[in-house]
Design brief:
Helix content is 23%, strand content 39%. It is α+β, with helices and mostly antiparallel strands. The strands form three sheets. The chain has a four-stranded antiparallel beta sheet. A four-stranded antiparallel beta sheet has the order 6-10-9-8, with helices on one face.
C-alpha cells in the first residue's frame, strides 16, 4: 500500500492500528481499491465496517467528499446484506443518502448496517454513519440478489 501522509493523515499507521483492534482490510481490485481501504469485522450487532479518510477524499471545502461517503455506505450495506442472507452476488437497486454533518479528513467513519427486511430477491438495508458518537450520515438501500453466472 502506498504511504499517504498529508494533512497529518498516515493511512499506513491507521491501517496497523485498525488491524490491531481486530479490523480486516477489505480487498478489492476495483473502485474500492482506489479510494479505500475499507475495513470490516464481525461484532455482536452484526457486520461492522469502517473507512479511515485521508487527503485523497477531500472536496473543495476540505472535508470528506459526499460521493466517498455514499460509496462507503453502498459497499457497507451490500456486504451486510450478503452476509445476513448468504447471497454471493447483489446489485444496488436504490440508494438514498442524507448528509448530517461534515467528516473531517483524518476521521474514521463507521457503520453497522441493519437489514430491515429480506425477500427472496430483495434486501432492504439501513446504515447510520458515525464518527465516534457523532452522527454524520444516514443511508437506506435496496439490494437485489443476483443469479450465479452461467
Amino acid at each position: 500500500m502506498e504511504r499517504i501522509k498529508e494533512r497529518g493523515v498516515d493511512i499506513e499507521e491507521k491501517t496497523q492500528t485498525l488491524q490491531a483492534q481486530g479490523w480486516s482490510v477489505i480487498s478489492d481490485a476495483g473502485f474500492i481499491g482506489l479510494i479505500g481501504p475499507f475495513f470490516s469485522k464481525m461484532t455482536p450487532d452484526g457486520l461492522a465496517l469502517c473507512f479511515p479518510t485521508d487527503s485523497r477524499h477531500h472536496n473543495l471545502r476540505g472535508v470528506l467528499q459526499g460521493g466517498a461517503l455514499m460509496t462507503f455506505a453502498d459497499r457497507a450495506m451490500g456486504m451486510a446484506a450478503r452476509t445476513a442472507t448468504g447471497a454471493t452476488r447483489t446489485a444496488t437497486v436504490q440508494l438514498n443518502m442524507q448528509f448530517i454533518d461534515a467528516v473531517q479528513i483524518g476521521e474514521i467513519v463507521q457503520t453497522t448496517p441493519l437489514m430491515l427486511r429480506a425477500t427472496r430477491q430483495l434486501m432492504f438495508m439501513e446504515a447510520k454513519l458515525m464518527v465516534g458518537a457523532r452522527f454524520v450520515g444516514s443511508a437506506t438501500g435496496v439490494f437485489k440478489r443476483l443469479a450465479e453466472p452461467a
